[in-house]
Design a protein that fits this description.
141 residues, alpha+beta, 7 strands, 2 helices
């Protein structure tokens, strides 16, 4: 059995995390999923959300991610994110501004497709705000 799971979180700006951990919970587009060592390989897309990394000593760290891909392979888990950062760098003020802008876009939407797209965006941002408000040291899905 492997000693742990190798995780790398990469954004266009930087390597956010690279270490061996016990498990990682990730916001997939179809819902959250958890990866541990010896997980079956797969690839999926990510949605806006928070990644919870459980370290080998049992402590958890949380990272923000905005879209991208998760690749689970025999080498571990690689997250290629459009945007990623440790939770302590996550700006709730920016999130509130994004929510207001999305709500304004929804109010301006004319076609059913535009309204549907804008509503999905508003819902995703509101869910993110709820999750961010629940994080206080640990984050459990």
């Amino acid at each position: 059995m492997a000693e742990g799971l190798k995780i790398e979180i990469v954004s266009p700006e930087r390597l956010v995390l690279s270490e061996v951990v016990t498990s990682v919970t990730v916001p997939g587009t179809e819902g959250y999923f958890t990866v541990m060592s010896d997980h079956a390989p797969f690839m999926t897309t990510l949605r806006l959300g928070f990644i919870t990394v459980t370290e080998t000593n049992g402590t958890s760290k949380v990272y923000f991610v905005r879209g991208g891909f998760a690749d689970v392979s025999t080498e571990g888990l690689t997250i290629l994110a459009e945007e990623a950062s440790p939770f302590h760098e996550f700006d709730k003020g920016d999130l509130q501004a994004e929510i207001r802008a999305a709500e304004e876009e929804l109010a301006r939407a004319q076609t059913p497709d535009d309204k549907s797209y804008a509503q999905v965006l508003v819902n995703g941002l509101l869910n993110l705000a709820i999750e961010a408000g629940q994080i206080n040291g640990t984050h459990i899905h």
